[in-house]
């Protein structure tokens, strides 16, 4: 496991490279495109374990932080979709430099999946396969969920009057969107999210795509079907495990922060990116 910085001089990024534990040259490589904010915090241990397990299987892995997130330079308020899309491309170039000419898969979680799809669509040479884990396809709904989660935390943690918080949520569309759950969102990013709709999330025909989503996620199902109608090679796989992206994973009924079911699902689909495109 090697910490590193990469990217252009004015936009350096922090990442961690996991070389194959076998000591041999990798047969494939995986770029992990993380979620943002509290979702990133909740997923950090999972992504670390996923990276270690892939490295044990001979896969080279790079996980990284977007500009203004995690350990990368910049402030929360510096984040925007276009800039983060460029960060994905920079991370891909760094992974190719370190892993060599091997098949590469991208795995994006939540907003990271959306960014990965956009970056792959724009790339001249992108991944051989894209795995989208619970992608954010409706940005306005995503913002609403974040602010409602923020309000719920305030109620539970500080015993604040519920009616006042609920009235503010109903009366002010922007309430609790500037820094939901302790992570700042720039005005530009909030506007980009409001404009994000499924029709604007496009896939490239140059790679296969797997969408892992809950069975009841009808929006993801409809989006995948629309992409197939455009001759995009995409499959949707029901993902039965309920992941609390903004919740403490130590809640009742989910005693581990690295639940086995989603870990095995991702490992199975990321060990051999070349086979995933077949």
Description:
Helix 1 (37-56) crosses helix 8 (260-270) and helix 4 runs antiparallel to helix 5 (162-171). This protein is α/β, with parallel strands linked by helices and 278 residues long. Strand 5, helix 3 (111-122) and strand 6 form a beta-alpha-beta unit. It has an eight-stranded mixed β-sheet with strand order 1-2-4-3-5-6-7-8. It is built from nine helices and eight strands. The chain starts with a strand and ends with a helix. It has helices at residues 37-56, 81-99, 111-122, 139-158, 162-171, 187-194, 218-229, 260-270, 273-276, and strands spanning 2-6, 13-18, 28-33, 59-64, 104-109, 129-133, 208-213, 234-238. It has two domains: 2-137 and 199-276, Rossmann fold (3-Layer(aba) Sandwich); 139-195, no CATH class.
According to DSSP, the number of beta strands is 8
Give the mean pLDDT. Answer: 87
Q: Specify the helix fraction band.
A: 40-55%
Q: Please trace the helix and strand order, writing H or E for each element.
A: EEEHEHEHEHHHEHEHH
Q: Detail the poorly predicted runs.
A: 274-278
Distance between the termini: 30 Å
* Largest β-sheet summary: 8 strands, mixed
- Rg over CA atoms: 18 Å
Question: What is the name of the CATH topology of the largest domain?
Answer: Rossmann fold
Summed up, the domain count is: 2
Features:
alpha/beta, globular, disordered C terminus
Task: Give the helices and strands, then pairings.
Blueprint: E1 2-6, E2 13-18, E3 28-33, H1 37-56, E4 59-64, H2 81-99, E5 104-109, H3 111-122, E6 129-133, H4 139-158, H5 162-171, H6 187-194, E7 208-213, H7 218-229, E8 234-238, H8 260-270, H9 273-276
Parallel strand pairs: 3-4, 3-5, 5-6, 6-7, 7-8
Antiparallel strand pairs: 1-2, 2-4
Helix pairs in contact: 1-8, 2-3, 4-5, 4-6
